[in-house]
Amino acid sequence: MTFSPNHLGHPILETARQQVLEMGIGLTEEQLLDVLRLPDAALPAALELAHQVRLRHCGEDVEVEGIISIKTGGCPEDCHFCSQSGVFDSPVRGVWLDIPELVRAAKDTAATGATEFCIVAAVRGPDIKLMNQIKFAIDRIRQEVDINIACSLGMLTQKQVDQLASWGVHRYNHNLETARSYFPHVVTTHTYEERLETCAMVKDAGMELCCGALIGMGETLEQRAELAAQLAALEPHEVPLNFLNPRPGTPLEKQEIMDGKDALRAIAAFRLAMPRTVLRYAGGRELTLGDLGTRGGLLGGINAVIVGNYLTTLGRPAAADLDLLVDLNMPIKELQKTL
Amino acid sequence: MSTQSQRHTAETPYCELCGLPLQPSSRQKDAPKEEKYDGGDAPPSYQHSRCADLLQLEPPRYCASCGRRLKVQVSPMGWWASCARHGMNAR
After folding, report:
1. Is residue B78 included in any domain, yes or no?
2. Which pTM does this prediction carry?
3. Residue B70 lies in a domain
4. Which residue of chain A is at minimal alpha-carbon distance from B62?
5. Which of A233, B6, B12, B28 is the least crowded, having the fewest Cβ atoms under 10 Å away?
6. pLDDT, tens digit, for every residue of B45-66?
7. Given CB atoms, is B62 within the 8 Å cutoff of chain A?
8. Structural domain count of chain A
């Protein structure tokens, strides 16, 4: 597919074509705000441009990942969007997953063609017991499944970062979630700087950094642009893009589900902020975008998906996403290409 | 152990999403019109139609038989839910 500048019709998109598509330089925070403010009529052109940027700078492959919670619920942190916080009266109960089940889930994930399997724990940071479990889990998965292993275990110490890297953890997830200016409205039990510290240690240790966003929590468009720019400054390998799914019992349970067109504008903006980053569809897309919007995002800058279910909620059936990728003629990234 | 979530049926008195009774209590059924259900703690079954919709993207959170909160584990391709009294449900 070729990209025609005649389809742009808006100054920020012409700027983005020259700066991002041609030169590979992400948009600034101010420019991103212009993208987020584009009228509905300009949205198809913005998505088309973002798709061309993704094809040119990332290629046509789509990276598929499965995620699983090894320790669910009872988290001491107060992230206002999270049903796993022990601070709120959420229906989610504490559960530990046993290792055979974890290995089975890794096998099921690999069978979809996925190259990534992320083990997640609802904790402030891992203790010795959890680290030992993770080490054991990694060893067992390695024995039986050919898949990259990622972890998301909260805030880490330098020693823990070094341990995970030495165990061969391929990628570490630690989200910024929202803009620095909005963060205190969403989390009060730790700071933005603490999150940044873990992100920096992960990169320094040679692991790939997966650092994502959760949008639709009541942040302004300015703060959405701020978040995209702050993520771009971190230069993460991957950015999972979540849309708020308001959880019962949490402070954000009454928050309205984000408008689908705003979500698509955000996808285009994040791609134009980070032309070379893996931009992954993560939680909430089923509610916010539905089937049609899911397709729109894959043709608007997204180049990775979480397949199947999430940590505590259900996703689209894996087959539906895989069929969609076939329909869109988008090949799944193969394991050897990720190494 | 059953292999399917029971979801909302006549035999399951509790909503699997919110944990509230699916039918108004007999005391409410027999109450004078002005004392009948007012949107309070025990909504009638039609109030749970939204819960049923949401259960398309949620595992059960409460036992359909007794209303107890469930232990739930979600995995990429399925889920299981366990009630302390009624055992395991999986899909």
Report:
1. yes
2. 0.91
3. yes
4. A91
5. A233
6. 567 888 888 899 999 999 999 9
7. yes
8. 1
Query: Is A1 a member of any domain?
Result: no
ipTM of the complex: 0.91
CB contact under 8 A, B75 and A91: no
CATH code: domain of residue A171:
3.20.20.70
Report yes or no on B21 lying in a domain.
no
8 Å CB contact of A95 and B69? no
B26 and chain A: CB distance < 8 Å anywhere? no
Q: Do A314 and B79 touch (CB under 8 A)?
A: yes
Q: How do residues A183-220 score in pLDDT, each as one tens digit? A: 999 999 999 999 999 999 999 999 999 999 999 999 99
Query: In terms of residue numbers, what domain contains A156?
Result: 25-338
Residue to test with chain B: of A67, A95, A108, A147, most B Cβ within 10 A:
A95
Residue with tokens 């990720």: A338
- Is A108 near chain B, with CB under 8 Å? yes
Provide long-range contacts, Cβ within 8 A and 24+ apart, for A246-250: A246/A81, A247/A81, A247/A82, A247/A83, A247/A90, A248/A83, A248/A90, A248/A91, A248/B18, A249/A83, A249/A88, A249/A89, A249/A90, A249/A91, A250/A80, A250/A81, A250/A82, A250/A83, A250/A85, A250/A88, A250/A90
Q: Low-confidence residues of chain A, pLDDT below 70?
A: 1-8, 336-339
Q: Is residue B62 part of a domain?
A: yes
Q: Does any domain span residue A47?
A: yes
